[in-house]
Amino acid sequence: MTGLILTLNAGSSSIKFSVYDGDARLFRGQVERIGPNGRLTVKDDQDFEHPVTAPDLSDHGSAVQAILTNILPLLDGRKISAVGHRVVHGGMRFDAPAVLADETIAYLETLTPFAPLHQPHNLAGIYAARAAFGDVPQIACFDTAFHRHHPFVNDTFAIPREYYDQGVRRYGFHGLSYDYITSEIAKQSPTLAQGRVVIAHLGNGASMCAVRGGRSIASTMGFSALDGLPMGTRCGQIDAGVVLYLMQQENMTADQISDMLYKNSGLLGMSGVSNDMRTLERSDQIGAKQAIDYFIFRIQRELGAMAAVLNGIDALIFCGGIGENSTLIRERVCSGMEWMGIELDHTRNAENTPRISAELSRVTVMTIPTNEEVVIARAVRNLA
Ligand code: ADP
């Protein structure tokens, strides 16, 4: 495939996009606040912001149309030959990207109850792109696909079997990020790529993944993207009894609990200060300190669990906004983990170099900036 590839990541009120030529990104941008006050930005790879005209950004359809209208004149006559979509859920069926035939889209619709806050918006992006692009091939890349071959014990909950059979499973998410990181490890060290690796994707959403020989065998996220580590506003692991208590004693509705666990919990809910790690690191409020303490505690706990599941660990990789940038969080995660063979080089850590472990550390510790969009572009190139 020699044409250009458009990647789309459609959320509830935004659509992020990039235009790729091979692995090189030519343009990127987003429509924010889809609706009457929507705003479109388009930047090139030098971060130059191009002027745009976007009279209508009232819904996903008009937003995709506006993206198209504004980027086509920038492409020197080259055509968009395929479109790749980030889709949160591929269900039990997809362990790899898929061409979006009618029947595939119908299946993805059936997964909406599994990811009600994301799947409908991803689908809205797909419908909008189909309308705007006609018969240009469209490909879906799933956040769940990378984890689809977890062993049964890491795929299930201990509830009656019928729920497992109907799809109540530990899907795991952030798969595009983990896919990218494993491909980078393979480039940098084929030996490590065959080994036992724990990847910590620490952003506003956060999860960890245990990878052996390039394949995911466990994820801290489960049925939904709520499980595991505390996140910017999501709670992470929680005892199901808490949800029962909120329903039975506090008379909270499902929507209220959902709002609380997705939007008002995590670092924000615990600190009462912010969901943003930079703000928390600068804050002298006790809540901010406790939120960071809990974040570190959960990461270390999961790190121990993942090393156990992998029967050891050869590498620990940090990625995501916090993992890639926060010297403090990396330092604290690794502190006390010498028993596991993790020894940080503090100077390298402070300098954000790719390898941040000490020369003699048995476990290699690295930061690798993640790139979910290039994974989509590559998948589209392979399939379209
Ligand atoms: P998303 O999951 O929305 O893609 P990102 O991966 O961009 O999020 O991560 C956002 C998080 O990264 C925020 O909590 C932000 O504070 C944090 N972050 C970014 N740069 C730094 C930094 N230099 N130090 C600490 N945290 C940082």
TrEMBL record:
Main subcellular location: cytoplasm
Location in or out of the cell: Cytoplasm
Catalysed reaction equations from the record: acetate + ATP = acetyl phosphate + ADP
Hydrolase is among the record's keywords: no
Catalytic activity, EC: 2.7.2.1
Record note on cofactor: Mg(2+). Can also accept Mn(2+).
Binding-site residues, substrate: 86
Chain residues that bind Mg(2+): 9, 372
Residues engaged in binding ATP: 16, 201-205, 276-278, 321-325
Assigned keywords, A-Z: ATP-binding, Cytoplasm, Kinase, Magnesium, Metal-binding, Nucleotide-binding, Transferase
UniProt site (Transition state stabilizer): 174, 234
Gene Ontology annotations of biological process type: acetate metabolic process; acetyl-CoA biosynthetic process
Positions of the catalytic residues: 143 (proton donor/acceptor)
Enzyme class: transferase
Role played: Catalyzes the formation of acetyl phosphate from acetate and ATP. Can also catalyze the reverse reaction.
Annotated protein name in UniProt: Acetate kinase
Organism: Marivivens niveibacter
